[in-house]
Design brief:
five-stranded mixed sheet, Transcription Regulator spoIIAA, alpha/beta, about 40% helix
Length: about 110
């Protein structure tokens, strides 16, 4: 199971995903996403540090999140990926679509202003 914590920094919202992100978590993740994207943030950051496992359904929902963000002109950034999640993103060539940063890069660019 997965849990998602939301931290609202005004124009920047950070979603911290914790646990195993798989098909059974999709409905919950979409509910959280929809609540947060409705606030029309300028940037939506997804902290991936504590994702222990991700399946193809969860990757698919992340692509859906990207499309949703683009429609609202919200910048979507994935940051602080563990090595295993980074490898999943790399294998699926998600770096071609997703903006991926380290935690330090994300914080310096979007939270320390």
């Amino acid at each position: 199971m997965v849990s998602i914590a939301c931290n609202d920094h005004g124009k920047v919202i950070v979603l911290a995903i914790d646990g195993e992100f798989y098909i059974e978590s999709i409905e919950y993740a979409e509910m959280i996403w929809n609540e947060q994207i409705a606030k029309r943030p300028k940037v939506m950051g997804i902290n991936c540090k504590n994702i222990r496992y991700i399946d193809s359904s969860a990757v698919g929902i992340m692509v859906k999140f990207l499309n949703s963000a683009m429609k609202q002109k919200t910048e979507l950034i994935f940051f602080d990926l563990s090595e295993s999640i980074f490898n999943v993103f790399k294998t699926a060539k998600l770096g071609n679509f997703f903006k991926i940063m380290t935690r330090t890069q994300f914080e310096m660019e979007y939270l320390e202003k």
